[in-house]
Amino acid sequence: MNDEQHISSLVLMHRHEAMPAIKALVEAHAALEIAAHGDCRCVVLCETGDQRSLMDCIDALQALPGVLNVSLIYHHVESLSELDQPMEPGLSS
Length: 93
Fold this sequence. Notes:
Blueprint: E1 4-14, H1 19-28, E2 32-37, E3 41-48, H2 51-62, E4 67-79, H3 80-83
Antiparallel strand pairs: 1-3, 1-4, 2-3
C-alpha cells in the first residue's frame, strides 16, 4: 500500500476554445479540480496517491487540443498517516 498523498498545482496556458475540453477532462478525473481560470490560463489542483498518477494527469492535460503549456508550480508529498493526525490548537502555517 502506498502511504503518500501528492498535492500539486498546475498552471495551464491554453487557447480560449480549449476550456470546454479542459473542464470535461477535469470533471472526468476525481484527482483534478479547477481552482481559478481566466480567458487563456487556469490553475488546476491535482491530488494523487503517487507521482506516476500526477505525471499521467499532466500528460493528459498537455495532450488536449489548444493546451499550449502545463507547468508544475507546486508539488508537496505528505504521508497519509501524517494527514490523518489532528492539528494542535493554536498552530498556524
